[in-house]
TrEMBL record:
Its EC number is 3.5.4.26, 1.1.1.193. Converts 2,5-diamino-6-(ribosylamino)-4(3h)-pyrimidinone 5'-phosphate into 5-amino-6-(ribosylamino)-2,4(1h,3h)-pyrimidinedione 5'-phosphate. It catalyses: 5-amino-6-(5-phospho-D-ribitylamino)uracil + NADP(+) = 5-amino-6-(5-phospho-D-ribosylamino)uracil + NADPH + H(+); 2,5-diamino-6-hydroxy-4-(5-phosphoribosylamino)-pyrimidine + H2O + H(+) = 5-amino-6-(5-phospho-D-ribosylamino)uracil + NH4(+). Zn(2+) binds at H59, C84, C93. Pfam families: dCMP_cyt_deam_1, RibD_C. In the C-terminal section; belongs to the HTP reductase family. In the N-terminal section; belongs to the cytidine and deoxycytidylate deaminase family. The active site is at E61 (proton donor). Pathway: Cofactor biosynthesis; riboflavin biosynthesis; 5-amino-6-(D-ribitylamino)uracil from GTP: step 3/4; Cofactor biosynthesis; riboflavin biosynthesis; 5-amino-6-(D-ribitylamino)uracil from GTP: step 2/4. Binds 1 zinc ion. It comes from the Bacteria. NADP(+) binds at A163, T210, D214, R221, G297, P298, T299, L300, A301, S302, A303. It comes from Deinococcus proteolyticus (strain ATCC 35074 / DSM 20540 / JCM 6276 / NBRC 101906 / NCIMB 13154 / VKM Ac-1939 / CCM 2703 / MRP). This is Riboflavin biosynthesis protein RibD. CDD domains: Riboflavin_deaminase-reductase.
Length: 376
């Protein structure tokens, strides 16, 4: 059900839509949107909109204030993340809102950055500006999950995406020839959604077996104005061929410590030696990756699951029966009462397929101490 026009929720939903325009492009900063509204008899008139396009450029509030001009005075600012209160690459947004004469600020979620962490809200209140928080907080926290994982977990936010048949199979046994030769599990609507997710992710990961079998491009083909995520190939022994289609400049190959792969380095790949998945994710964090879309096969996904490194699952279920085949996870057998319970937050039909989205862990809205921080 849609929020009523002119409500705080309605305007915050518009701010979240603005923030979504920066997804996959702002790391190490969060995606943020801002809508400025002048009150009137019908609930309010939007006089300014803005979003943060990329690190180093002005924040969402600045773009919205520029568009509003003098009409920002006395307006309400709807911001998806607490306005910053410190000088980073750009001046504090809290100061910009104060200087523009904004009368009220509505914030979806607090900023876990230790340099902000409530200080922006305090600064606004001290200036006599009315502040309200927590409007559409859950949606904002989910949208900012990559930034929050960097701040609170010191690693990227990991989304495991897979598609399976109604009897729980992601691929036939010993298919050979890859998915292009054997046919996709899902229909075109589901595949288009995946391209959209890739456009919003910083990086996309597969294991070397998937790469050798499918030779995937790992691009956002078909997305107008899309940009390709950074490929990450988990390949302990450096078996990736230099001619692999995913091995474009900047691609990351995660190897075992001591593994030698000079041909991959010559092809433009970044070699990331790591003894564990946790170490690999910390290395990706240091390379500026905030969100990692995990598209590898059952072996890689199981390794992430066993290490408790999957934060969200997006599973397509196709109305097909395959019989013998591979399951989404290839881990050890367990009893049903040992299965992990996820928090399903969305259920959607795309063509003939069903999409189930569920959180393994919710990246907290409130900050906790972290040894690593992101940019500003």
């Amino acid at each position: 059900m849609n929020d009523p026009p002119g409500s705080d929720e309605d305007f915050m939903a518009q701010a979240l839509a603005e923030a979504a325009r920066g997804l996959g492009r702002t790391s190490p900063n969060p995606p943020v949107g801002c809508v400025l509204v002048q009150p009137n008899g019908s609930g309010g008139e939007v006089v300014g909109r803005g979003f943060h396009p990329r690190a180093g450029e002005p924040h969402a509030e600045v773009f919205a204030l520029r568009e509003a001009g003098e009409r920002a005075r006395g307006a309400t600012a709807y911001v998806t993340l607490e306005p910053c209160s410190h000088f980073g690459r750009t001046p504090p947004c809290a100061d910009a809102l104060m200087a523009a004469g904004v009368a009220r600020v509505v914030v979806a979620a607090g900023d876990p950055n230790p340099q902000v962490n409530g200080r922006g809200l305090e600064r606004l209140r001290a200036a006599g500006i009315a502040v309200q928080t927590g409007v559409l907080e859950a949606q904002a926290v989910r949208q900012q999950a990559g930034f929050r994982a960097r701040m609170l977990l010191g690693r990227p936010f990991v989304i495991y995406k897979y598609a399976m048949t109604l009897d729980g199979k992601v691929a036939a046994l010993e298919e050979g020839g890859g998915s292009e030769a054997n046919g996709a599990v899902t229909g075109p609507e589901a595949r288009a959604r995946v391209m959209g997710w890739r456009n919003e992710a910083d990086a996309i990961a597969v294991g070397v077996d998937t790469l050798l079998t499918d030779d995937p491009q790992l691009t956002t083909r078909g997305v107008v104005g899309g940009r390709d995520p950074r490929p990450v190939i988990f390949d302990r022994q450096g078996r990736t061929p230099p001619t692999a289609r995913a091995l474009r400049p900047g691609a990351v190959v995660v190897t075992a410590p001591g593994a030698e792969a000079p041909a991959l380095a010559d092809a433009g790949a970044v070699l990331l030696p790591a003894a564990t998945l946790e170490e690999a994710l910390r290395g990706l964090h240091d390379l500026g990756v905030s969100t990692l879309l995990l598209e590898g096969g059952p072996t890689l996904a199981s390794a992430f699951a066993e290490s408790d490194l999957i934060d969200e699952v997006r599973a397509f279920i196709a109305p097909k029966l395959l019989g013998a085949g591979l399951s989404p996870l290839a881990g050890p057998l367990r009893r049903m009462n040992a299965a992990g319970m996820l928090d399903m937050y969305a259920l959607e039909q795309l063509g003939a397929d069903i999409l189930v989205s569920a959180s393994v862990r919710r990246v907290a809205a409130e900050p906790t101490p972290s040894p690593r921080t992101g940019g500003a």
